[in-house]
């Protein structure tokens, strides 16, 4: 059928808005205000009709959604109705429904939300459709949708107006369906292992559990500054001390830092802690959650992300940081015992190091990894045994006290998880906190603060514990093959237009 707009002069955006408001005013004057509609009890969705067409053909259904297109002429109209599952065609004929209802329907605009009572059938062209008998306007769209052939493609606008993005770009919803499915899978996985989901404070008097710059706010009643949490680690480990042996929290984290394709100031992570295990136990859980979710949600271990083919089949590579630097940079830190020699070896490879106070064996090792190795890790890889300088909350290795029992999981040169054999020695923890405080006093506002209450908790005794954080946003980026975190956060942080 020819499009209704053919041979009609183009109407400006402002005129379209005016016309829609005039239509609304006319309806209200006639006592037919669409905003007075309170409910519509639909009983079928577009996908249910398509999946069960043979059984539903000829049956009456009630469907509801947004009109995304209108085409046809005179006494016959075709429309695309978009509901929560997708789209289905509506077929309306004047001689098959009340004439006045049909004439009123002809005045509806693209974007209007309607409820339809009709019969499931297939058109002469074979398209599964609903033959409308009754059409009720449930909400009037006062603003025109973006031009249908181009849609909403500007990323900046899409993120600011996610509601329009979801209307006109149906594939966008898939990202958030997969996100929800991943979180559900992860919850079930941990619940089945005997974990308890808990909640800890978002507002804290001390920003701890990570190296990050916090957001600061003020509590008026107590007249104190407080910090929005940068991690959930320290409260969760207090629960381990208290005897809750397996706990996890899925929640929003806030870090007052830069923004780029992998970072948003507020993001979602899961942190989990399990008594009587170590970082090896956390590796098994990370691999089980992520590979299992891919298989269940996507139906395969083989995916694409950032232009690379990724194989998530269980059995991921586990590589110490010393071995990784030896393999990719050509420096064997295992054979170096002196700080000065380590720094010289790193600088000889063009690796940059921080000020004099940071020129240690451990910092040289980490700088080599950070600047020369991470970018080369494509397939799932656990990098283990981190220097103590960059792991203030981690148990030292009994084989080399310069290293800690820590890993980070990398896929496609992106960190997805971070885990420790948790430090449970309160004396060692105090010394490391003190070193962090010294760094803070030298101007590093991303280092740990002294947390006396946490030290008190450790002094009561914390069992050997494995702990881990998994970045949900980045993991969903991988599962949905997206190159920016803003595609998997419904409302990413945006600079105000003014």
How does this structure look, described?
- This protein has helices at residues 13-29, 46-51, 53-56, 99-106, 155-160, 162-168, 172-192, 233-241, 279-298, 321-328, 339-348, 361-373, 426-441, 452-460, 472-480, and strands at 60-73, 76-82, 87-93, 113-122, 128-139, 196-197, 203-204, 216-219, 224-228, 246-254, 266-275, 302-305, 308-311, 317-320, 381-387, 403-411, 414-421, 465-471.
- The model is unreliable at 1-6 (pLDDT under 50).
- It is elongated and about 90 Å long.
- It is built from 15 helices and 18 strands.
- The protein starts with 12 loop residues before the first helix and ends in an 18-residue tail after the last helix.
Helix-strand makeup class: alpha+beta
Sheet with the most strands: spatial strand order: 6-10-11-18-17-16-15-14
Tally of separate helices: 15
Described by strand count, sense and barrel closure, the largest sheet is: 8 strands, mixed
Features:
single chain, 498 residues, alpha+beta, eight-stranded mixed beta sheet, five-stranded mixed barrel, 15 helices, elongated, disordered N terminus
Provide a concise account of the structure shown.
With 498 residues, the chain is of the alpha+beta class. Helices cover 33% and strands 25% of the residues. The protein contains 15 helices and 18 strands.
């Amino acid at each position: 059928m020819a499009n209704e707009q053919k041979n009609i002069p183009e109407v400006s955006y402002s005129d379209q808005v005016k016309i829609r408001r005039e239509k609304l005013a006319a309806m209200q004057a006639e006592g037919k205000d669409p905003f007075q509609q309170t409910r519509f009890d639909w009983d079928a969705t577009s996908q249910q009709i398509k999946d069960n067409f043979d059984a539903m053909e000829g049956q009456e259904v009630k469907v509801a959604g947004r009109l995304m297109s209108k085409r046809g002429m005179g006494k016959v109209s075709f429309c695309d109705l978009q509901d929560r599952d997708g789209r289905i065609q509506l077929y309306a004929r004047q001689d098959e429904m009340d004439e006045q209802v049909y004439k009123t329907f002809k005045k509806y605009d693209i974007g209007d939300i309607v409820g339809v009572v009709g019969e499931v059938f297939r058109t002469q062209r074979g398209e599964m459709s609903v033959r409308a008998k009754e059409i009720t306007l449930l909400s009037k769209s006062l603003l025109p949708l973006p031009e249908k052939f181009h849609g909403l493609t500007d990323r900046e606008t899409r993120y600011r107006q996610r509601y329009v993005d979801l209307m006109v770009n149906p594939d966008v919803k898939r990202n958030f369906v997969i996100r929800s499915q991943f979180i559900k899978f992860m919850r079930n996985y941990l619940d089945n292992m005997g974990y308890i989901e808990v909640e800890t404070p978002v507002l804290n008097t001390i920003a701890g559990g990570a190296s990050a710059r916090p957001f600061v706010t003020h509590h008026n009643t107590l007249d104190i500054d407080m910090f929005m949490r940068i991690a959930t680690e320290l409260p969760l480990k207090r629960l381990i001390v208290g005897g809750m042996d397996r706990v996890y929290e899925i929640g929003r984290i806030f870090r007052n830092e830069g923004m780029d394709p992998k970072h948003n100031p507020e993001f979602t992570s899961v942190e989990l802690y399990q008594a009587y295990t170590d970082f090896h136990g956390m590796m098994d859980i990370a691999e089980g959650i992520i590979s299992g979710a891919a298989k269940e949600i996507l139906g395969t271990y083989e995916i694409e992300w950032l232009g690379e083919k990724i194989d998530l089949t269980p059995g991921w590579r586990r590589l110490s940081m010393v071995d990784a630097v030896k393999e990719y940079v050509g420096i064997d830190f295992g054979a170096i015992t002196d700080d000065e020699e380590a720094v010289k070896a790193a600088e000889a490879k063009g690796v940059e190091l921080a000020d004099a106070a940071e020129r240690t064996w451990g910092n040289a090792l980490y700088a080599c990894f950070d600047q020369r190795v991470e970018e080369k890790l494509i397939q799932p890889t656990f990098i283990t045994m981190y220097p103590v300088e960059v792991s203030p909350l981690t148990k030292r290795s009994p084989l080399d006290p310069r290293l800690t029992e820590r890993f980070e999981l990398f896929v496609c040169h992106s960190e997805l998880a971070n885990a420790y054999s948790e430090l449970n020695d309160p004396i060692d923890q105090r010394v490391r906190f003190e070193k962090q405080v010294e760094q803070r006093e030298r101007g590093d506002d991303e280092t740990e603060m002294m947390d006396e209450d946490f030290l008190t908790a450790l002094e009561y005794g914390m069992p050997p514990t494995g702990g881990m954080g998994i970045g949900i946003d980045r993991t969903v980026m991988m599962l949905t093959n997206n190159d920016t975190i803003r595609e998997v956060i419904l409302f990413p942080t945006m600079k105000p237009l003014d």
